Amino acid sequence: MTAKLTTVRAGALTTVQDSGRYGHAHLGVPRSGALDAFAMRLANRLLGNDPDTAVLETTLTGCALQPDRAVTVVVGGAPCPVAVDGRPVAWGTPVGVPAGAVLDVGAVTAGVRSYVAVAGGIAVEPVLGSRSTDLLSGLGPSALRDGDVLPVGTPARQVATPVAAPWQGPPTELILPVRPGPRADWFTPAALHTFTSATYRVSAHSNRIGLRTEGPPLERAWTGELPSEGMVLGAVQVPPDGRPVVFLHDHPTTGGYPVIAVVAEPALAAAAQAAAGTPVRFTLG
Amino acid sequence: MTSHPRLTARPAGRHALLVELPDAERTAAFHAELLRRRAVGTLPPVREIVPGARTVLLDGVRDPEALARRLADWEIAPRAADDGDVVEISVRYDGPDLADVAALWGVGREEVAGLHSSRTYRVAFCGFAPGFGYLTGLPAELHVPRRATPRTRVPAGAVGLAGPYSAVYPRSTPGGWQLIGTMPDPGRLWDPMREAAALLTPGTRVRFVPTEDAA
């Protein structure tokens, strides 16, 4: 028999995430998947799980879970206090949670999203090849609510001995390397210069769809309407207010605002952990 | 950027190309050619092929620049009007914007059904929501603007018009399209548990069939 986790406290926004849905973008299906893929993979490796096994992604306030059988978990990503039945336990390394005990993942002390990996993985039914919650189009399990019960898969028989885990700290300044295009020519030369030289700040309106920024608006060379076109993960879209939005994993597959540049995918893990107000710089490279 | 008399390949990050075509017809032809080449194994691995109004995005490509150079040599035949699967969608022409659309078309409201259902459409691209297809096929004189004020809720199955496109809403969402009718069985449009999740995929041809059936 495998374990089940009962949600004692769902937190502000806790979702199931794996590496996401591929191959359905032409049907309007976003990729989804863990925003901080690096943290998800490291947490899974520490438990002997396949790196892309489904985990829980919390937002700022953590969550609390009660297993009906003993489970082993890793809480990583954004640093936070972790407790089992009120007693502090280690963050970022495997921890045993006895049957009936409550694992409390506290509010982040830095960053935005903590990850809760369980040996065996979160075993909800996959939809189109992924267990990820897709907040844009509503595919996969809905965001966690108090009382929700999540099935756990069968743990790997041999768990790798944890080595020193190279967790990345949340950024104090977010540096996003970009390549111009596909619509850099829709902007004035002055806007292109501003984009790669000004300091923006992460907006509190950011979410799993996009990292919104505050800062100097980017002026378009013309104001024509862009017919809907496909959008990639990391696309920096510029809506009419001129403030760049970096598309994250739940982004729409097509859009009608010009994309000035694209952020390299490995840099998006840091973007997922950049709290509101964090300075952002876009650099060519 | 690689330019060509018929297409322009624009960079979209390290692993994608946005290929821009002169018009919707050549976009459909280029998309069909991509699918043909993928089926016969002469296209390098591409994770996502996402058509837009006048573009096709190729995402998850190992060497986008090399692919851009190869595209320049492709011979792309126009897509035959009768090429592609046909899907029939029943419609009750009872939408709340029927009178407005009739006025924009300069016809009586009872004539909208005949004008809309007498042609064959093609899914140009999908987006907005899973299962939502943008259908081309209305002649320019029947294109209508979006509503000045979008609705906060459009019911699933609503058949709408906006610009050159017709579409059916797969589920209830906010929306600004002019609503002319209702598909009685909108559950056919999208079912992620079905082998083919979407009824309307890019390239599919669509006929609207007037019906009096209630939902």
Folded structure, characterized:
The complex is a heterodimer of chains A (285) and B (215). With 285 residues, chain A is mainly beta. Chain A folds into two domains: 4-151, no CATH class; 174-284, Cyclophilin-like (Cyclophilin). Chain A has three helices and 20 strands. A seven-stranded mixed β-barrel of chain A has the order 12-19-16-17-14-13-20. The N and C termini of chain A lie far apart (50 Å). In chain B, the strands form four sheets. Chain B has a five-stranded antiparallel β-sheet with strand order 1-2-3-5-4, covered by helices on one side. The longest helix of chain B has 17 residues, at 24-40. Chain B folds into two domains: 2-71, Gyrase A, domain 2 (2-Layer Sandwich), CATH 3.30.1360.40; 86-210, Cyclophilin, CATH 2.40.100. The mean pLDDT of chain B is 94. Chain B has helices at residues 24-40, 64-71, 98-105, 112-117, and strands at 2-3, 8-11, 16-20, 46-51, 55-61, 86-91, 120-127, 129-136, 151-154, 158-162, 165-168, 173-175, 178-182, 205-210. The A-B interface holds A 22-29, 127-128, 137, 139, 179-183, 227-232, 234-235, 252-254, 259, 262-265 and B 1, 10-16, 18, 47-57, 59-60, 125-132, 134, 192-193, 197-198, 201-202. Chain B: Keywords: ATP-binding, Hydrolase, Nucleotide-binding.
